[in-house]
Amino acid sequence: MPELPEVETTRRGIRPWIEGQTVARVTVREPRLRWPVPASLARQMTGSTIESVDRRAKYLLFRTSSGTLMLHLGMSGSLRVLDGPVPAGAHDHLDFELANGRCLRFNDPRRFGSVHWLRGDAETHPLLRDLGPEPLGPGFDGALLYRTSRGRRVSIKPHIMNGRIVGGVGTIYASEALFRAGIHPRRPAGRISRRRLDGLAAAIREVLAEAIEQGGTTLRDFTWGDGRPGYFQQQRAVYGRAGAPCPGCGEPLRSEVIGQRATYFCCRCQR
Asked: Is the CB of residue 185 less than 8 Å from the CB of residue 175?
């Protein structure tokens, strides 16, 4: 699944090409995504101007003169900006044709993505209103992790992946941040000291910022907005490397399912 860095990379890749542009036509080839594409989407968006492209957690927000298009990439979704007419492929479900001749195309082989049309304040939508602070924003730090974890027995990895606590930390970067902070992913969140949680918050910020800088993780289905693959995969310390030597101590890395998500760690380096 594209995680926060992949979504942010996509946002940065497409924004220069579509901001300030007018939507001339919307084509919906397949409305059956995670939730049905609104039947009125083409009518609502046509003629509107894309004023900004923002992100909240893993959601892209296309703010226009008539409303906000909220898009989630799901498990395998991607967006590309095309210079002109290009025949649609099997999984090209939506086209947003612009007045300048370019086209923003949404491709989603697994159809777990979603598209919503919002009027009014987008942040009040049920999918957004209860999200925690952005992990790269000023509202996220070790104090938040400490305050929200006291008295809780849940393992620390599901805790930092809880969107109500912090918005947008997925399984790849949770594994990487916990390794960098030296914290075992199964350790109960409520039994971790403030000092160690300060270190974890810093590690989360670091791995996300580095991934964004390097273009996002190269998952099988992820590409930049211009079609190039992301490059963070080569920089991963633990995720997807079960059995490989730990970069810290040389012991074989382990993999377990924690909170229904694959988790990678080093038993020696993480306590």
From this structure: yes
Quote the tokens at residue 88: 């649609």
Catalytic residue among 25, 186, 194, 261: 261
Buried b (16+ CB within 10 A) or exposed e, 168-201: bbbbbbbbbbbbbbebbbbbebeebeeebbbbbb
- Could you identify the residue written with the tokens 């101590």? 249
* 2 is an active site residue: yes
**199-236 confidence digits (pLDDT tens):** 999 999 999 999 998 875 433 344 444 555 444 455 79
- Taking the C-alpha atoms of residue 179 and residue 157, their distance in angstroms, rounded to an integer, is 11
| Annotated catalytic residue within 3, 6, 97, 176 | 3
Q: Which of 148, 154, 176 is CA-nearest to residue 237?
A: 176
User: Is the pLDDT reported for residue 174 higher than 70?
Assistant: yes
Which CATH code, of 1.20.140.10, 1.10.8.50, 1.10.10.10, 2.102.10.10, is assigned to 142-265? 1.10.8.50
Please give the backbone phi and psi of residue 220, each rounded to the nearest 5 degrees, phi first.
Answer: -55, -35
How does pLDDT run across 28-51, given as a tens digit for each residue? Answer: 999 999 999 999 999 999 999 999
Of the residues 2, 5, 135, 158, only one is catalytic, namely 2
Q: Determine phi and psi for 147, rounding to 5 degrees.
A: -65, -40
Following CA atoms 165, 166, 167, 171 in sequence, which dihedral angle do they give, to the nearest 10 degrees?
-100
The fourth-level CATH superfamily of domain 4-124 is MutM-like, N-terminal (3.20.190.10)
58 part of the active site: yes
* Catalytic entry in 55, 58, 157, 236: 58
Q: Is 186 among the residues known to form the active site? A: no
